[in-house]
Amino acid sequence: MSMKVDTVTVSRRGFLKIGAASGGGLLLSLALPGAIGDSFADSAQAFEPNAFIRVDRQGKVTFTIAQVEMGQGTYTSIPVLIAEELAVRLDQVVIEHAPADNSRYANPLLGFQVTGGSTSIRSAWEPLRQAGATARTLLIQAAALQWGVAPSGCVAREGVVRHEPSKRTLAYGELVEKAATLPAPEKVELKTPEHFQLIGLTSKRTDSPGKVNGSALYGIDARPDGVKVAAVMACPVIGGTLASVDERAAMAVKGVLRVIRIENAVAVVAEHMGAARKALALLDIQWNEGANAQYSTAQMLTAIEQASQPAGTVVRNVGNAEQALAQADKKFEAVYQVPFLAHACMEPMNCTVHVRAHGCDLWLGTQVPARAQAVAAQLTGLAEAQVQVHNHLLGGGFGRRLDVDFVAQAVAFAKQVAFPLKVIWSREEDTRHSTLRPYHFNHLSAGLDAQGRPIAWTHKVTGSSILARWLPARFANGVDGDATRDPSGPYDFPNIGVSYIRHEPPTGITTGFWRGVGHTQNVFMVEGFIDELAASAGQDPVAYRLALLDKHPRARKVLEAVAQKSGWGTPLEKGHGRGVALTFCFGTYAAQVAEVSVDPRGQVSVHKVTCVVDCGRSIVPDSVVAQMQGGAVFGLSASLFGNITFKDGRIEQGNFDTYRVLRMNETPVIETHLLDSNETPGGIGEVSTVTIAPAVVNAVFAATGKRLRKLPVDPRELASS
After folding, report:
1. Is the sign of the CA dihedral 241, 247, 251, 253 positive or negative?
2. HSE-CB for 156 with a 13 A CA cutoff
3. Which CATH class is domain 298-340+436-718?
4. pLDDT for residue 570 is more than 90
């Protein structure tokens, strides 16, 4: 059978440049298309590469990667793309962290340097395969020139070019010098799926060995010469400040060096964390509690409910929803709510900083290196080029490390000492001063015809705007595009009205992105309300959804598959129920069915979660399965336990005793089924978190007949009377 290929035109000026690497070898510098803009090739702009692939004289391939590994498998899946087309083994590709640089290392889909939004594979799929294929083509041409043969008679495998007729071979390392002098080929041939050696197959995680043997380095592991450790405490009242500190008892602790202060926090600097923590507890601190000293969750609920009453800013308007509602045979209304949530990363916030007269170094784990660089430059008065960011693996990100508040605090403390200072937040400090997923209070309504089919759908979203703070340019015309994601799901309604009301909590409560972003709020509400409509119409929840998906064949296929794989409709023992939820998010179609039971005390146990995913072409299937499992556990923790509450201006939760996460004995069986697809890859790291909450509450309804419209699940609402 002849080999089919995809032919890709490569513009030397608009896509990549080829040259010799420092110290010898082949260097490919790429400007990824999404970041440079469609008109780059026709402009007079300077070439600003944002990806680098080097092949050295030993044949080792080094890739400078802009994304950071935080458990999602990026350091495996992205090298797979390069290794596949470059025709090398995965273990021949070495990863280097990219330095902080928004111009060179911008995320092609977002326009600046960031790891988030499940964009890593989506942004890398075509460009990195093209780059790998270009390097392979150049190395084959170099070998052909050396042998005086036609390139068509040569093949590349595992870092070696072989001339098939004569059986001669040359390793890549022997060819890189010549390849670096060749012009970029006008066209390269990408492999097609039947010839993949890595894509779509099992690959061992490249970051696993270091995590198993302890050699992997996270931000908290940084130990520059002369480093000292700081334990920190910020004002426990939101928006409060530091009044005074009596440090005499703390300074008596062996190993303590100094007590330092900033406007709203105090830190004990010591030779080691044990001394710093012990001394911190001995400080006699007085706080200025400020205007929020009496703030409570009850006040917050009253305020957001009142704010949700007026008409909001129009986000989407299809047909005439109000008229259709008035003419509907039946009308349903509901209010759904989701709470404030912290991220609870396994590695708490930390940052090591060394400030000097003419430079500053940061050692940390961050999703936004250039933002960390910028805030350090601003606080020190240095130029950004004088601030070096040493990024590390992240012990959990989930959106928390998209913010740099902990970096700013560490820099403010480090400016007061002459040595590198490692500032580490305790678990309690991390929970009580985290950025929070916003509280959302949403009104939904639907009108049904005589057959129970929705003819009108309205959804009014009320909540904080993360974008207005984090990325103001994306907060346009009074609408937060993240807060209003998925306001009607993937369903076909003839009349849709979506609106948004911005409502901010008091100053001092900072809302931020949380794994799954706005999808996690609205999919919970949409899928819960759809289930209500199905029940009111006396129809099966899966069949009801399928009837609304005529224009979405991939969604239909996913939903049909999850019903079949989960045994939907087969009998369950008394007290058990199944619930379903569907989403299209981050370019991926996914559905989950949760099987739960509810005991007489109202305690919910999740026994099994069945996931079906169409994420387009799967790069590393094992990573997709792992992310679906991890996302389900993360989302279940939030659904069953997650809730940040306020009393006397303070967050009431601290460690894992009061901010619960799912325990091993509580974790259900999680089955994941991947549908074959030749579509462009979608994101996967956040998908499972999006659908698990509605699947669970819909299962609770099936088991008990009680409808939950507010998270987390409250056993008091389910307990037998």
Report:
1. negative
2. 29
3. alpha beta
4. yes
